[in-house]
Amino acid sequence: MERFAAYDVEGSIEAFDRAIEVDARYRARAWQRGLALYAKGEYDAAARQFREDVALNPNDTEESVWCFASEAMDASKGVKVARERMLKTGPDARPVMKSVFRLFETGTEEAEAALREAGKRSDGDTFYSLLYLGLFYEVNGDEARAREEFSKANGTLYAKFSGDFMADVSRVLLKRM
Known about the structure:
Blueprint: H1 2-5, H2 9-22, H3 31-40, H4 43-56, H5 61-73, H6 78-84, H7 95-106, H8 109-118, H9 123-139, H10 143-154, H11 157-161, H12 165-175
């Protein structure tokens, strides 16, 4: 995770792979590895990682969304196939994540507006709504809007001070654009 935060995506993947070699049980818990694979553009491998993770943790909305994004970015699949294959997860206690899931599940303007509204609850919710709006635009081929949302996410107090790995993800995704 430290390597990823330092923009060493490849080194991060190598470190996660070494950890899995040491203890294979770690593989199904390595969601951060999936994010690094996504950031590197290894979308098929990222999707496989997220599918393994959801099998172990079936209530994690974010892993379902990242699997969708990975498959949507995979040239052999795309958004339509990713939506058809989208993993259904159990209830996520975070209201903003319900809105995130709905946006990726439906792709509608109504769902986008609902996510923007859900992002008004707290600085953390603002960060997550902006991060996932950026991801949504990225997978739908709108790089300019993706860059704008990732930039806004990175500008939140949450991104600057929370220590949340997802803030690192937002920074890395923006830098690689």
